[in-house]
Amino acid sequence: MAAQLGRELLLKIHDGSGSYDDSNFVAVGGFNSNDIKITNSEVDITSKDSGGFKESLDGGGQRSFSSTASGTFLSDAAFQIVHNHVMNATHPLCRVIVPGHGTYEGKFVITNLDLMGPEAEEVNYSISFSSSGVVAFTPEGA
User: Fold this and answer.
1) Euclidean distance between CA atoms 112 and 129, whole angstroms
2) Which of 139, 140, 84, 86 is nearest to 112 (CA)?
C-alpha cells in the first residue's frame, strides 16, 4: 500500500433508510488520528505428530475489525446518527474507506463516543467501534 494521508481515511454510517446505496451513507468525519486493527485468532491443533512445532487449524478462529479514531463531525446529522446508535445500543451498517486500498463494510457496535471541546477550538470526537458480524472488503476500483 502506497503512503496515504491519515486524514483521507473516512468513516460513513448508514442513515437508517431502506436503501443501501452510497447516497444513504453519511460521512461521520475524516479522521485526524486513527487506529485500525484486523485480528485473527487461531485454533491450536498441535499434537504428538506435530514434530515439536505448534500447528493451527487453517481457516479456524475468529476474525474481528476494530478502530479508534478522532476528528470533527462533518454535520449535525452525522452526530445525531452516531449518538442515537450509542444511546440505543444498536449496531449500524458502516463503511471504513481507506483511499488507495478499498472499503470495509459491515455492522459495527460503537463501544465509545467521547466529545471534547477546548474553549477556543471546534468540538472534536473520539469514537471506538468493533465489528458485529461479517466485515466485507471491496478493493478500490472493484
Assistant:
1) 7
2) 86
pLDDT tens per residue, range 68-99:
988 888 888 899 999 999 999 999 999 998 88
The set of cell numbers assigned to 98 is 481507506
The set of cell numbers assigned to 55 is 500447528
Angle at 12 between CA 9 and CA 13, to 5 degrees: 150
Q: For residue 31, which of 55, 4, 56, 58 has the smallest C-alpha distance?
A: 4
Residue 53 CA to residue 36 CA, distance in Å, equals: 31
Residue 10 · residue 96 · CB < 8 Å: yes
Q: Are 108 and 28 in contact (CB under 8 A)?
A: no
Residue whose C-alpha is closest to residue 128's, from 39, 65, 77: 65
Largest CA distance in the chain: 66
What are the backbone dihedrals phi and psi of residue 79, each rounded to the nearest 5 degrees, phi first?
Answer: -60, -45
Q: Is 104 helix (H, G, I), strand (E, B) or coil?
A: strand
Model pLDDT for residues 99-110, shown as the tens digit of each residue: 888 999 999 999
* pTM of the predicted model over 0.90: no
Is the CB of residue 65 less than 8 Å from the CB of residue 106? Answer: yes
